[in-house]
Specification:
Four copies of one chain form a homotetramer. With 138 residues, chain A is an alpha+beta fold. The first copy, chain A, has a single domain, classed as Hotdog Thioesterase (Thiol Ester Dehydrase, Chain A), CATH 3.10.129.10. Helices cover 22% and strands 37% of the residues of chain A. Chain A contains three helices and eight strands, in the order βααβββββββα. Chain A has a five-stranded antiparallel sheet with strand order 1-4-5-6-3, covered by helices on one side. In chain A, a hairpin with a 5-residue loop joins β5 (89-97) and β6. Chain A is elongated and about 45 Å long. Chains in contact: A-B, A-C, A-D, B-C, B-D, C-D. The interface between A and B is small, with 10 and 10 residues.
Chain lengths: 138, 138, 138, 138
């Protein structure tokens, strides 16, 4: 499968900070989700398309490495790479300071396709999804 | 209508704190929701019962007054008073330090009954809900 | 005092949704905070400037009216109006659908200036803050 | 080092749910943090003690496995095991349904001791912390 790479920009808001004046570690998952949705939108295969195909992609695994804490108003880039779609969707994420390029965080998620009617795992991606990946141009 | 008063206990967790080392102001809404759900559970009229009656009670208005900031590990009591059910559900909340009784926060919410099939506002509470309120013993 | 009006754009993310598939009511407070910080940035008087002047502006009151629920990926505009700075900072917010202009939500917050060294309330705004407001051009 | 095991009970609240009517995957991190703070409290070595020793323990790595989604009002048990303190604090977590014992989620976190004055990593735990672990009785 062709790898897809997209970049999502965000800015640290006050409500994401903790008493150490840095982003609370659990809030990085929000940046990852926003970046993933952004990638799916750019691919043209969104949550709505999944629903039409009676699929959902719940997160099954997540690994995160916290390198340097992000701070208030810092501009972040989340580089998001779709690595695999079968047997499961594997995505890698690297968050950097958008100005200096300094690496702050990295993660990897695995999401499993589930048939929302039967609840069963599906080890294949849909033809539509695979075609969108093949046709993707940055 | 008989007024109902219940008390919900909670403890401030680290993830609710902001850089000033106090509960971030937006997080009080979570305490209010948990206290409201607790009151409905004690009444015996939960979200499931609402759904069976094809009702939902979205929040229409909320007023909050922040008196003194809650801090890490502080034990809180949320006194929750159901004031009205018709034409809308009105609830008052007072958050105090559970040990000293000192008042930290107060709020008032108004929730409107909506028919989940037609989307229309319903200005009456269901007979079941009203009966549960009448039968309530603390 | 001259009134200041700014507009802040945001998009509804998946993590802000609740089981009704709309923005959970407590999450609007995050949009308000982001809009407020954006206004202060445009004014040139940020949290850092407050800290230099030994001031903080904790939220003392908040009133919210929920008119129509925002949905996934909806583009929102938060029109933010600084109404008063003395004796307290009063801000009004109107959230509309950024495309149709339809009103979804409105709120009003009151924040009180506090001297971070003594903890005392200050009923005057700093000269710097007042000047920034006077000099503001949209 | 002696392993420490504690159990923390919590209940799923409405505000933790997502549009699939299950706990949003990012919210499990809150349960882990609450369980960790609960373990430190039972050990008698809290965030305050860390601060006195000029230490902080930021999360450096986190691995999570989502097995079965938790639902509204489900009672959860978070079994928390302190595996290592040197060279870094390693904790394992297993979340089960508190009634059936069914496993829903597991995770592992690594936190690194940092000297809050110099910002440098410290590969040893403090004598106080190690003694608290040795003296711990469930």
């Amino acid at each position: 499968m062709k790898k897809i790479e997209t970049n999502y920009k965000t800015t640290v808001e006050f409500y994401d900070l903790d008493p150490m004046n840095v982003v609370w570690h659990g809030n990085y998952i929000k940046y990852l989700e926003a970046a993933r949705c952004d990638m799916l939108e750019k691919l043209g295969y969104t949550y709505d398309d999944m629903r039409i195909e009676k699929s959902a992609y719940p997160v099954a695994k997540m690994e995160m490495k916290f390198i340097k804490s992000a701070v208030f108003k810092q501009k972040l880039n989340v580089k998001t790479t779709l690595e695999e779609l079968e047997p499961a969707m594997v995505i890698k994420y690297v968050i950097t300071d958008d100005e200096t390029g300094k690496k702050l965080f990295q993660a990897k998620s695995m999401q499993i396709r589930v048939d929302i009617e039967t609840g069963e795992t599906v080890y294949k991606a849909s033809k539509t999804f695979l075609k969108k990946v093949e046709d993707f141009k940055e």
